[in-house]
């Protein structure tokens, strides 16, 4: 009975993943999982965690709702992993309280802007093989980026070769607008689609008129031949 009472009295949020170390920092719980060869985010992170370090592991993806139960989380370090994919709802549940998010030194080429623009946290996105595009531009302009790391957000790939290897901020300062390029591409695609539909309608109308004309001609010919036949019969 004493054992079961002890289980009931211990709060579930105070447990610690076996691959991590849990400590107190100024009265706030810190969960340290650095360099633990982790390939995914641990499932049993304490609910009262305020600081979470998952850096220097082998994590490849941040799935939806990965930190949703961590309502007290303020600082999250995911740097120096192998992250390639971040889901749109990856940080749902922690967006309001998170103050710092470190995603630097990963393998991130692109990221849904919805995943970051909802955050109030200061972001570190440096040293990733970014593909410079509209979504990344919007993140740069609208998100709270760490000013010390902005210059290290470099175009690994880009729509034009001349942008490759340059800091994204430098490219944008030169007057490049990746969003307008995408808009022009969308406009051209819409124009081609509308033209194709219009051409199909015109072809259908021409075929319809031609078919009706042939039927009319046959019918008129039949009517012309009808009296002549009756005349020979008389």
From TrEMBL:
Which cell locations does it reside in? Membrane
What domain of life is recorded for the organism? Eukaryota
Which stretches are annotated as coiled coil?
none
Among SMART domains, the record links this protein to: LRR_TYP, LRRNT
> Which keywords, in A-to-Z order, does the entry hold?
Leucine-rich repeat, Membrane, Repeat, Signal, Transmembrane, Transmembrane helix
Q: Among its keywords, does the record have Transmembrane helix? A: yes
Which PROSITE patterns is this protein grouped with? LRR
Give the range the annotation lists for the signal sequence: 1-22
Membrane topology, from the record: Single-pass membrane protein
Residue ranges annotated as transmembrane are 188-209
InterPro entries hit by this protein: Leu-rich_rpt, Leu-rich_rpt_typical-subtyp, LRR_dom_sf, LRR_TM_domain-containing, LRRNT
- LRRNT domain ranges (all copies): 15-51
Q: What is its main location?
A: membrane
- Gene Ontology CC: one annotated term: plasma membrane
A matching Pfam family: LRR_8
PANTHER family according to UniProt? ANTIGEN BSP, PUTATIVE-RELATED, LEUCINE-RICH REPEAT-CONTAINING PROTEIN 3
Question: Which family, according to UniProt?
Answer: Belongs to the LRRC3 family.
Q: What is this protein called?
A: Leucine-rich repeat-containing protein 3
Origin species? Furnarius figulus
Q: Which gene encodes it?
A: Lrrc3
